[in-house]
Amino acid sequence: MSKKVALVTGSSKGLGKVIAQKLAESGIKVIINYSSNQEKAEEVVRDIQELGGEAIAIQADITDKEDVKRLVAVSRQTFQQPIDILVNNATGPQPELSLEEVTWEDYLDQLHFTVKAPLLLLKEVIEPMKENQWGRIINIGSEVVELGNSDFSNYVTAKSAIIGMTRSWANELGKHDITVNAVHPGFTPVERHGEVTETSAGSYIEGLPLNRLGKPEDIAYMVRFLASDEANFITGQNMNVNGGNTFGV
Ligand SMILES: NC(=O)c1ccc[n+]([C@@H]2O[C@H](COP(=O)([O-])OP(=O)(O)OC[C@H]3O[C@@H](n4cnc5c(N)ncnc54)[C@H](OP(=O)(O)O)[C@@H]3O)[C@@H](O)[C@H]2O)c1
Known about the structure:
seven-stranded parallel sheet, globular
């Protein structure tokens, strides 16, 4: 895997940061993409470099077509090779809204991250993947697609679209040896959740067969596996990494 290049969208913090770190530990060159948090993104790059890995930080709004084109072009120029692994991870604010409050614009806000951005990115990375007869697309979903949480239909609906999109892309790209899979995390505390304790998350934990909260590393190991050659016969799948909270769609 050491000659591959991976783009992890939204990797200045949260799950994306740890996914990028774990890919870099395997010798993969990683692009740390961020929206506004330059300092954090550069910190992730430094941490990776200190461990002997290769990384660059590139600011780009992945919901914007021109930004996406620039992001992929800068990566190509820097590493002198195309992107082999695309991890669609970035997310914006996720407001919880009742059906009385939610608007179509709220749905669109989420769809921009779960459908528009992955499509814009796919179009920029796909040709070299086809030429190389090797590629990995990994879409980060959520367990909410199975739970169907109320007061969250904007996010649940947009995340659900990932399932069909992943299967359709997998069917279409399989002939080029490009695999497309989705990883669905459960509640996995990251910086934005503040301090989460076993007590404050007690009722959620009680419902999990594994009876404990997941860590960002748990998600990252699944992504790293799907990105590897060992996963070359897996495509179109939904991988739940949530301590068994749901059993699959
Ligand atoms: N953590 C969980 O419990 C959990 C559970 C289920 C699913 N997920 C999914 O896992 C993924 C990561 O979630 P997270 O909790 O790690 O999120 P997070 O901590 O909020 O991180 C979001 C990342 O996305 C970046 N970003 C935001 N808007 C962007 C844009 N327009 N263009 C490019 N980058 C942008 C942010 O960059 P800046 O720092 O510059 O703003 C940041 O790096 C998401 O798809 C989320 O839905 C998370």
